[in-house]
Amino acid sequence: MRLDKEVQEFIKRLQTSAPVDITGIAKVLGLKVWESSNFDRGIAGKLFREEKAPNSLVYNIVVRAQDPLVRKRFTVAHELAHYLLHRHLFATELIDDALYRSGLSTPIEAQANGLAAELLMPWHLLMPAIDIPIPSLAEMFQVSEQAMGIRLESGREIAIRGSVGRSRPMA
Question: What is the pTM of this model?
Fold first, then answer.
């Protein structure tokens, strides 16, 4: 499942520099973002909705306060991705454990992880800095080195598939 073009373009306009203000994007989209020190160690965050008035829903993202900043940023992006892609699939809340697994299927969690990476490390900001070492890129984008490595590897796979599709017959 992909975001429609208008939503993609709107988000891209908010991704002006690294690190991307992921909490700001969530707020612009109408979500409230909170930290909680009441989550068990195995819970990274949750997305839930509350009815403020009849026919008026407010969505909230809550992250574990004790987690490192890069973890909290990825959790906000992951839960925001669930909001954008999957909010029709749950009744009132969606809780993700430390491995970003909820009660939703693995492909749906993979979609949320993929969109979270796009939100935090968009190609239009990443490509100009692509020759910088992964630790420095990770620091620049305020993500983990693991997340940056996965993002760069996925970009290589996309580039390889794209170049195969554009190949010409030999003369």
Answer: 0.83
